[in-house]
Amino acid sequence: MALNMTLVSTHLDELRSALSADRVLTDATSLQHYGRDWTRHFEIRPSAIVFPVKADEVVRLVKWARKNKVGLVPSGGRTGLSGGACALNGEVVVSFERMNRILEFNELDRTVRVQPGVVTEALQNFAKANDAYYPVDFAARGSSHIGGNIATNAGGVKVLRYGLTRDWIAGLTVVTGTGELLDLNKGLIKNATGFDLRHLFIGSEGALGFVVEALVRLTSPPKPLTVMVLGLSDLESVMKVFNRFRTHLPLTAFEFFSDIALRTVVDHTHLAKPLGTDCPNYLLVEVENTDASTEAAILESFEHCLEAGWVLDGAIAQSEAQARDFWRLREDISEASAPFTPYKNDVSVTVAKVPEFLEKTDAILKKGYPDFKVVWFGHIGDGNMHINILKPESMDRADFLKRCKGVNADLFRIIAELGGSISAEHGVGLVKKEDLSSTRSVAEIQIMRELKSVFDPDGIMNPGKMLT
Amino acid sequence: MALNMTLVSTHLDELRSALSADRVLTDATSLQHYGRDWTRHFEIRPSAIVFPVKADEVVRLVKWARKNKVGLVPSGGRTGLSGGACALNGEVVVSFERMNRILEFNELDRTVRVQPGVVTEALQNFAKANDAYYPVDFAARGSSHIGGNIATNAGGVKVLRYGLTRDWIAGLTVVTGTGELLDLNKGLIKNATGFDLRHLFIGSEGALGFVVEALVRLTSPPKPLTVMVLGLSDLESVMKVFNRFRTHLPLTAFEFFSDIALRTVVDHTHLAKPLGTDCPNYLLVEVENTDASTEAAILESFEHCLEAGWVLDGAIAQSEAQARDFWRLREDISEASAPFTPYKNDVSVTVAKVPEFLEKTDAILKKGYPDFKVVWFGHIGDGNMHINILKPESMDRADFLKRCKGVNADLFRIIAELGGSISAEHGVGLVKKEDLSSTRSVAEIQIMRELKSVFDPDGIMNPGKMLT
Asked: What is the model's pTM?
């Protein structure tokens, strides 16, 4: 079914009466601001931005959109990297910015009921204030919304220890593409009464419906954390160090970044280089000091890796401020790369296949981009690597994209051979939908289409995303 | 679409040539043996039992069933308690008994690839032999299959600490009702490429398709465990003791059972009573000795609960043999109740609502069954209670069932009011399908029907289960 690409004035009048006039914006600045995420490769063209404040307003919006054949694009903190929150074809953007309340904390269940527009860091801080911990964490914590995290099953830097967003959602209230309000799983730990629709919605990128409330599980805060940076001689050492550390220490993070990545961050932030020695590759390692013996075990593992020649140099943060700076060396990579209009890949393999993946990808990147700056980093502990190709200043953007897509063909072939994923944590959105078949089979994609039809028969929920 | 309720001889010939003749059984003993699970309230009437040995045989079976309009019932260890593996209407039972190989252990990923017919305990033992741990555990461990565990998202006694089967499935290969072989998620930790069909299949009771292979995640073995039995004065003390223990100790299990449950087990097994004092309620508590201070912390918590008057008596197992006996007091309840043809309820609420649930349910049971023996036990740590009503010897089975279903109406109303579930871990199957709407909304049930149609358009996969 073709959707309307422009709103007529009666549509807008209906919208304004369904919400209130001040929560329907159509000015050019708002359309550009709310109509996109962090991707910069698309021409943005929404019809209006609306700001519901409660679930039944979202129900009314969906029913309105069905009746008028208008696409709806969900919008959270707009930190997505796959174009999932971009409105290109006259859709109405549903911003959850004003549904940003923390509704209820249940101390016995250790759950917190939130609206979808709660910022990740606000949830983390709320947990901390209640002697608890929300462990899903990543660089965009200050802007991203919990609703967007759920829509993409956000991962980040602590997955190795704490899993993904999926693992922390005890209940989910959603509005489907037919305007049904579903209250899924209600916070139960054990509930064997049919298909778990909650899990189907997590990671569905708004294609089945929109999250209007979530019941999030919290855990106990970790014991003090030790943060260190290690400098490595070569790529082969990465997994050797990982295996040594993870078998001897309670790791909470194990992050890799290349020399070019470090230099890009240091140039951008003016942070101090962490080590006296320049190395081709670096690791940021975080360990929880679960008991008195952890400190000695860290030093032992460090010395073992030095003696084996895998590690050339290393530094352990001596203060919380230094630990934060070490983390910034890894977490500011995206921001430091942004001025170079990077082309981003976000891929994963199983941990056991990381060495083969690193070796083969290194060869592809050297062959495919001999003249480009490649910023390489990732979460070794969960098999997820980010590859940012920086655009040479002199190069035309269209030429640059064409060149990057050419290299993708080689890269995605390797990933398919290794049974990996072409989108580890950014989602499919607009950016990866043409390549979905390199990770999912034809039969799976057909089933996905049919599942979408069940929840969204008119194709109004985030149209044109994920599926072609 | 109506399915055939009897197989004609040409159907059987085709089956025998699709597999081999010795893997198609039609004798009365086999039909009765393989055609049911642990429920005893149904009249069993399968047409044949088949034993595939590999995934592509299952594909061929499904295609054969589609062509001939024959229902297929998946069958694992047949320890189910909801009738999910019962064949009542001439279906062909697909036993996974001969697909029971452990295929591959990946030490780096700490995953093990298994066929669906691997017995839970065999997987646990395999993990142990490889210095790892498969933590999903329950009384039927010696017979249940991993395929059945996945189909029902099995929980059990360690959920408090380790979660459910869902949390340990890294990849899943299934055959849908159209005969498509889907290889879902491939063991990836991070994979944001569309709807997670793996999670939709977990807990779907064979209604969408059958599991033909699974990639199961393992973890590190726990440190030594301390097992104790506590005797409690009243139901209100249960949660008080739980809150004290869980805030001070690393719990791995926290199980409740009533005095009648204990006496039923002691009579059946001739195990020694655990305590000198007879108490109305008991707890089995298991704690991991994570460090040297745990033992002292256990004693402190125990004394705190004694002084508060919540605990009347207690005993800590002094040997592994005694710990096993303590566990049998809890785990043998089902077996000890079996001769009394119990009517089983398996319900859950959130942990915070357990006190209100216990109080209200106690009142309903006393009012509804003043003359019946009620064996009550459950997993306090995850909000799941089991209620077994024992049939008085003199009572007719039909009268007994009618009486139990009458009490269900009151019980299920309370559970709905508390936002709980009428099937915490046994699944829906045949036993709970008429009552599904007390946990799932009309809209959810309609969506479940439509999802089933996507995967199983002809309704041949475990027909008549879960959905009416």
From this structure: 0.97
Q: Beginning with the edge strand found earlier in the chain, give each strand of the sheet holding A181-184 in spatial order.
A: A102-106, A111-114, A209-217, A169-176, A181-184
Query: Any idea which of A361-370, B204-213, B286-295 has the lowest mean pLDDT?
Result: A361-370
pLDDT digits (tens, 9 = 90+) for B40-88: 889 999 999 999 999 999 999 999 999 999 999 999 999 999 999 999 9
Question: What is the distance between the alpha carbons of residues B105 and B127, in angstroms, rounded to a whole number?
Answer: 9
Q: What pLDDT is stored for residue A1 in this prediction?
A: 60
Residue A394 in contact with residue A49, Cβ under 8 Å?
no
Q: What CA–CA distance (Å, rounded) separates B9 from B47?
A: 11
Calculate what percentage of chain A has a pLDDT beyond 90. 87
Task: Give residue-wise pLDDT tens across range A423-454.
Answer: 999 999 999 999 999 999 999 999 999 999 99
Between A266 and A4, residue with greater pLDDT: A266
Q: Among partner residues A106, A199, A422, which is closest to B193 by beta-carbon distance?
A: A422
**Virtual torsion, Cα B322, B327, B329, B333, nearest 10 deg:** -160
B421 and A193: CB-CB below 8 Å? Answer: yes
Q: Are A93 and A36 in contact (CB under 8 A)?
A: no
The order of strands in the sheet holding B92-95 is B24-25, B48-50, B92-95, B72-75
Answer left, alpha or beta for residue B41, where phi above 0 means left and psi between -120 and 50 means alpha. Answer: alpha
Task: Please report the residues numbered 80 through 109 in chain A whose beta carbons come closer than 8 angstroms to any beta carbon of chain B.
Answer: 106, 108-109
Report whether pLDDT(B155) > 90: yes
Cα separations in angstroms, A174 against A64, A159, A168, B49, B200: 17, 25, 16, 42, 17
Pair of tokens at residue A28: 């050019």
B167 in contact with chain A, both atoms CB, cutoff 8 A? yes
Q: Give the Å distances, CA to CA, from A167 to A119, A198, A249, A349, B91.
A: 18, 11, 23, 20, 37
Cα nearest neighbour of A132 on chain B: B247
- Is residue B217 within 8 Å of residue B168, measured between CB atoms? yes
Q: Residue B466: CB partners within 8 Å, gap ≥ 6?
A: A194, B84, B205, B207, B427, B428, B429, B433, B436, B448
Compute the distance between CA of residue B454 and CA of residue A189 in angstroms, rounded to an integer.
Answer: 28
Q: Provide ipTM, 2 decimals.
A: 0.96
Render the burial of A380-399: b for 16+ CB within 10 Å, e for the rest.
bbbbbbbbbbbbeeeeeeee
Question: Residue B153 and residue A382: Cβ atoms within 8 Å?
Answer: no
CA angle B360, B366, B372 (to 5 degrees): 140
Size of interface A-B (CB pairs under 8 A): 225
User: DSSP labels for B14-46?
Assistant: HHHHHS-GGGEE-SHHHHHHHT--S--SS----
Determine the Cα–Cα distance for residues A422 and A60; give it in Å rounded to an integer.
36
* Burial category of A42 from C-beta neighbours within 10 Å (exposed 0-12, middle 13-18, buried 19 and up): middle
Sign of CA dihedral A332, A334, A337, A340: negative
Burial B351-385 (b: 16+ CB within 10 A, else e): bbbbbebbebbeebbeebbeebbbbbbbbbbbbbb
User: Which amino acid does the sequence have at B398?
Assistant: A
What are the beta bridge partners of residue A348?
A384, A421
Instruction: Judge: B199–A196 Cβ closer than 8 Å, yes or no.
Output: yes
CB contact under 8 A, B443 and A243: no
> Could you report the per-residue pLDDT of A237-265, keeping only the tens digit for each?
999 999 999 999 999 999 999 999 999 99
Q: What does the pLDDT look like over A133-176, one tens digit per residue?
A: 999 999 999 999 999 999 999 999 999 999 999 999 999 999 99
For A400-423, what is each residue's pLDDT tens digit? 989 998 889 999 999 999 999 999
Residue with tokens 């940012």: A388
- Give the residue ranges of DSSP H helices in B273-353: 294-307, 320-331, 333-337
Task: Read off the tokens for B87.
Answer: 């064949």
